[in-house]
Specification:
Layout: H1 2-8, H2 17-31, H3 37-44, H4 48-56, H5 63-72, H6 77-91, H7 95-109, H8 119-125, H9 128-136, H10 146-152, H11 159-172, E1 175-177, E2 183-185, H12 199-218, H13 235-258
Antiparallel strand pairs: 1-2
Helix pairs in contact: 2-4, 3-4, 5-6, 6-7, 8-11, 8-12, 9-11, 10-11
């Protein structure tokens, strides 16, 4: 019975191995009343305390332990490969590594739906110029001419990239057409949740920070505003600064929404706040 239940459990729905293992345990518990942490530990030859620690986020799942879990779960070779890709995706420390393993997960999944990451949002945030073109559409001089759009972007992109961007945003419902067939944003403003720890937003922020770096040389000081502060603060003050940045972002978005003048340019405003030193209570070996 355990084997059949394991086959019915869709491992390809997951991009986080902790959620995967937690749901697998619940799934098996419903299918087989005798299933328990001890039962699975005996079947996998891995202590039940490790299983609990992994689910709780106290320990990382290694590829070696995964192989034992995969055997106990009666996973197929393809399912095992996917399980391994999920582990490498979650445990990767750099964005490039995460992109590599996420692409592998997509190939292995085929047409299965991801439970956590939304592929349409991944497509939108993976390239900086999607958001730029979305705002470009609102300008009075906008032309649905892919060469014009490509040259209008800074740095410039290609006409095929502009065309694919428009098609992507129409498919996702970010752009739509009015009664005359003219392109327009489907919503006045789009944003993401605070502290969203997903690959899609890391990709987006990485691209925008790279553009900001290039803007130092690309534009004269009169055309940009780039400055920085190095501060020594308490943790309480650090949290207050984060809250103030969030509040200021809301203020900026409201300013744009309430702006009755004709839009004349598309710009990018970045905020970066990050530690340059470790906290006193932060252990050296923390992961």
């Amino acid at each position: 019975m355990g084997t059949n239940a394991a086959k019915r459990f869709n491992i390809f729905q997951y991009t986080d191995y902790r959620s995967l293992l937690n749901d697998y345990y619940s799934f098996q518990k419903k299918a087989m009343k005798s299933f328990s942490f001890r039962f699975f530990a005996s079947k996998s030859s891995v202590s039940q305390s490790m299983f609990k620690d992994i689910i709780a986020g106290r320990r990382r799942l290694s590829l070696t332990v995964m192989q034992k879990y995969a055997s106990a779960m009666n996973l197929t070779p393809k399912e095992t490969d996917y399980f391994g890709a999920v582990i490498q995706f979650v445990n990767s420390k750099t964005n490039d590594e995460k992109n590599l393993h996420f692409s592998r997960m997509l190939r292995l999944r085929g047409k299965c739906e991801v439970k956590i990451l939304d592929e349409s949002r991944y497509e939108f945030f993976r390239n900086w110029y999607h958001s730029a073109i979305r705002e470009l559409v609102t300008l009075p001089e906008f032309k649905e001419d892919y060469d014009w759009i490509a040259k209008k972007c800074i740095p410039s992109i290609t006409a095929p990239q502009a065309r694919k961007s428009i098609e992507t945003m129409l498919r996702m419902g970010i752009l739509c057409r009015d009664q005359q067939g003219k392109l327009q944003p489907a919503d006045p403003m789009i944003s993401s949740e605070y502290e969203m720890k997903s690959l899609i937003l890391r990709n987006f922020h990485t691209e925008m920070i790279t553009l900001a770096k290039g803007a130092i040389e690309r534009f004269e000081p009169s055309q940009r505003e780039i400055s920085s502060l190095t501060l020594g603060v308490s943790q309480k003050c650090y949290v207050r600064i984060k809250e103030r940045i969030r509040s200021f972002k809301e203020e900026l978005m409201n300013m744009v929404i309430e702006d009755t003048d004709v839009s004349e340019t598309v710009c990018q405003c970045n905020f970066q706040l990050f530690p340059l030193t470790k906290n006193p209570d932060e252990s050296e070996g923390a992961q």
